[in-house]
Amino acid sequence: MRAYSEAYLNDVVENQGKLFDYVAQSFPDMDTEDFINTYMRSKTRISIDKAKAYVNTMDAKELWNYFTETEEYMLKPGKAMEGFVPDWIGEFYAYYQWYFDIPSAEVVKKNYGRFFEKSLLWIT
Question: Superkingdom of this entry's organism (predicted)?
């Protein structure tokens, strides 16, 4: 069994990728990795894990606003991820969580994002 209805899957995957990319592109002097780790452990992401339609149907900017307000999150200074990496990590994390029906906090513990980022830099 998957984490939630497949009807939500494409939107959740696409919007999470766009959210991670939005943060990286919009805030180049802020730490994208810290944002991703915090987001994946957040109440906002738990709502998606639990198939709460209100959050599952938000687009990237709505998710950003909802997350920053709900979690009272402030970006930390640092380096933003570049290129398509944040989008790819966002999409992968969302799909992986859905497919294996595990909490998003567990997905981020596996630290695939750092592995992907290093692998992509090596390839290019």
Answer: Bacteria
